[in-house]
């Protein structure tokens, strides 16, 4: 079967090298331009923090570049497909391949092979590098680029309910009984949701049961009075396990950790449809690179002298970008419960695979 799909080793190597070079070229160009634009918008906020300097600017670049690579790699494959097929068609090389007896699928096969390898590399890169850098950068951004506490597993802007009361923390780090909250605010509320008292503390630790606010400042709403208190225990029904699953960032976790967190949420009786869709999309997302040669191949076939080469290239680009629009819309619908998670993650991929194959078969005929 491989011999029938790749009848010429020389031609396969030629097309694969051409395609890889264009993917890398487009990706590097996109990353450089987009990173420069983001630096222009974020560098002021980073340098506004006392003590931040050039090292923090480079840290932002190091954390942001993996995200840009992961986000725009499929676009790079799409544009590389067009930039590969356009000159091949313009120079009648595709016509020569077809005249030699190659089918449209055989002409496309080397590009699909490279795209499959790109999808695999993208999946591994996303799970080992991108997830960690995304979680770190998101936490750093939510802290307004102030230093992230040294403890591992730090999360930011966590809100927790204890009956009618609310416990909010700017950062939460550690696990189990060693969980520590920083910059904590506790809202004591009545049954109607009105705030009766506000307690603010720099730090809270687990008191088993409850959480000890260290020397909080209390504001009484009814009396509009502020007073300094000693260590105060609040939220007696809130456990470290509930804190651990209070906020799950699917973009900042790898597929294994995310699966474990989804299981913990299910055990706690929480809905996980949105997270399930994100879990499946961690697989279907990288596979989008495999679709791009199929969708962009419309630019490869047809006579260049017919004057429709530009139109074909535009159609191929439109099909590729339409996939990303539909994919994002399906995920959004899945988050709102409009689609089951499996369908939200996989339906766009399967739909556009059928569209691309249909276009290719019609070209073959």
Summarize the structure.
With 365 residues, the protein is α+β, with helices and mostly antiparallel strands. The chain is built from ten helices and eight strands.
Provide the succession of SSEs.
Answer: HHHHHEEEEEEEEHHHHH
**Major sheet, described briefly?**
8 strands, antiparallel
Helix content: 55-70%
Radius of gyration: 27 Å
The dominant shape is elongated
Query: Which segments are poorly predicted (pLDDT under 50) over 5 or more consecutive residues?
Result: none
Tell me the span between the first and last alpha carbons: 21 Å
Count of the domains: 2
- Pairing-aware structural class of the strands and helices? alpha+beta
Percentage of β-strand residues: 5-15%
**What's the number of helices?**
10
Number of strands: 8
On the 0 to 100 scale, the average pLDDT is 84
Protein name: Lipopolysaccharide export system permease protein
Keywords: Cell membrane, Membrane, Transmembrane, Transmembrane helix
Transmembrane segments: 20-40, 68-86, 107-125, 283-302, 309-326, 338-361
Main location: membrane
Describe this entry's structure for a reader.
It is a multi-pass membrane protein. It is found in: Cell membrane. It comes from Novosphingobium kunmingense. The protein has 365 residues and is of the alpha+beta class. It folds into two domains: 2-144 and 274-364, no CATH class; 164-236, Lipopolysaccharide (LPS) transport protein A like domain (lipopolysaccharide transport protein A fold, Sandwich), CATH 2.60.450. 60% of the residues lie in helices and 15% in strands. The chain has ten helices and eight strands. Strands 1, 2, 3, 4, 5, 6, 7 and 8 form an eight-stranded antiparallel β-sheet that branches. Strand 6 (217-220) and strand 7 form a beta hairpin. Helix 9 packs antiparallel against helix 10 (341-364). The radius of gyration is 27 Å and the shape is elongated. The mean pLDDT is 84.
